[in-house]
Here is the input.
Amino acid sequence: MPNLTYTFVVEHLDPEVGPWSALEYKTIAKESKQQNCRFILSSVPPSLLETQDLKHLQSVGAEARSDSVEAYFASKKEKICLLDPAAEQELDPSDAAVFDVFLFGGILGDDPPRALDRTSELRKKGFTGRRLGPKQMTTDTAVRVTRIVILDQIPLAKIPYTDFPELKLDEHESTEMPFRYVADQSGKPIMPEGMIELIKADADKAFDDLEL
Ligand code: SAM
Here is the structure.
């Protein structure tokens, strides 16, 4: 019997779904499905709902919709927890009994991390907030950490992390990712499949643009 108790909502806050976001959302969809949780990607501009990226997301288990969480879950607002880097209280395993829905901003991270506070667009709607520690995470990492705390009942402090990992782009170049990630068993950051290749391709393109 699938456990559909918890729903993970990413409220998309950008005008487009770029390749980084598409990879993050695909990862959230697959991992949510594996753990029998519901994943809703909302506030997607209607014109994007018909794109290949969105169709693919739906095929791997995401529900995609154009309205906003405050509209479709209006009747259960007190059961919604906004994961908010500016919240005063940290997420705790006991929150599993308090909330049914965990809400995240569908925003690419910024560097330096505090330069933008776009999660405020959701905070000002009055959702109860919880923090996942002091460091900025990618959206898929924030969802992963929340699942670990809520489903596996592991406190934030017991999760293995790797902060600001250095990614090798080629023999000479590397880049530091300005985020906290969950570490796998060999201490490497858990990232969406295809993300390292995308980062390398973006770095190559930036280098080519510089040479023009
Ligand atoms: N600085 C960005 C902003 O504009 O708010 C953070 C965006 S972060 C890449 C995307 C989402 O992941 C946030 O909206 C939040 O829901 C979640 N998140 C990331 N790090 C978090 C943290 N340390 N505590 C709580 N939520 C976090």
About this structure: The chain has a mean pLDDT of 91. Residues 23 and 192 are 6 Å apart (CA to CA). Residues 83-85, 104-105, 107, 109-110, 113, 116-119, 131-133, 135-139, 142 surround S-adenosylmethionine (CB under 6 Å). The longest strand covers residues 7-12.
